[in-house]
Design goal:
With 270 residues, this protein is an all-alpha fold. The protein has 13 helices and two strands, in the order ααααααββααααααα. A two-stranded antiparallel ribbon has the order 1-2. α4 packs across α6 and α9 runs antiparallel to α11.
């Protein structure tokens, strides 16, 4: 556990330094974080530590909000209409897709929308009674609560297949399109991917996991799709091998930093 906490804290500090233009927390002039190294959540971790950081954060907030509107508009066009037969499943898909979210997987409209569909499919299934059994998601009733378990399962399945249909139509060179589909499929799969992480998370509920297992869970269940999103954007943009590797490394760091050390400790130390 101690080793994982150190790795997570290192990832969080590396990300914070990026937001501070290379300055460490000690150099930023704010001793609060240094005195309390294990912040409560990611928003606390990315709290601006200098005046210039406030400008960067404000600009980032504007970019994210504009991106959220763009992706929502694209999703509205790409998803089947709620009146399209069979209406129940299309309404269920839209219920979960438009339930809110930060829309961090932005960029090209088709790519960002497909990634949101895949993320939403994972949330629908994650909320099912057989998995986390959650009744609320982002303050709204979960899909299976509103439409029943059978339709919720099928809605998740449908979002996954719809995502790959959208990805297949992306306006980019065929080689890049195939690489993107491969990257995303691997990121959502069983080998170091989202589904694999979910499986290990379920198994960890029946036995106390060690640090290596926890790191695997969070790098796979959370980090793999984040990494695939970043790498896919780099491939679409024609990034070099070095640039894409940097995006991959950044995604892996974000995936682990997303789970702050205090949250890990509270969740798994008992």
């Amino acid at each position: 556990m101690a080793e994982l906490l150190v790795k997570t804290e290192a990832s969080r500090r590396a990300l914070l330094e990026m937001f501070n233009g290379g300055a460490t927390m000690e150099e930023s002039g704010d001793g609060t974080e240094a005195d309390q190294p294990y912040g409560s959540d990611l928003e606390h971790v990315l709290r601006p530590q200098s005046r210039s950081s406030y400008t960067h954060i404000f600009m980032l907030k504007e970019i994210l909000e504009q991106g959220q509107r763009t992706i929502d508009q694209a999703l509205e066009k790409l998803l089947p209409a709620p009146t399209q037969r069979p209406e129940s499943i299309h309404q269920a898909m839209r219920h979960s897709v438009f339930a809110g979210g930060k829309r961090l997987r932005q960029g090209v409209e088709e790519l960002g929308s497909a990634l949101e569909m895949l993320h939403t499919y994972s949330l629908i299934h994650d909320d099912l009674p057989a998995l986390d059994n959650d009744d609320l998601r982002r303050g709204k009733p979960t899909c299976h609560v509103v439409y029943g378990e059978a339709i919720a399962i099928l809605a998740g399945d449908a979002l996954q297949t719809q995502a790959y249909e959208v990805l297949s139509r992306m306006k980019c060179p065929a080689e890049a399109r195939v690489r993107i589909i491969e990257e995303i499929a691997r990121g959502t799969g069983t080998v170091d991917g989202m589904i694999g992480g979910q499986v290990k998370d379920l198994e960890a509920e029946r036995q106390r996991p060690d640090a290596a297992t926890l790191e695997y869970i969070h790098r796979s269940k959370t980090g793999a799709l984040i990494t695939a999103s970043l790498v896919s954007g780099g491939i679409y943009a024609g990034g070099s091998t070095t640039e894409i590797q940097r995006l991959r490394d950044f995604g892996r760091a974000v995936g682990l930093a997303f789970h702050s050390p205090s949250r890990l400790w509270m969740t798994y130390s008992t």
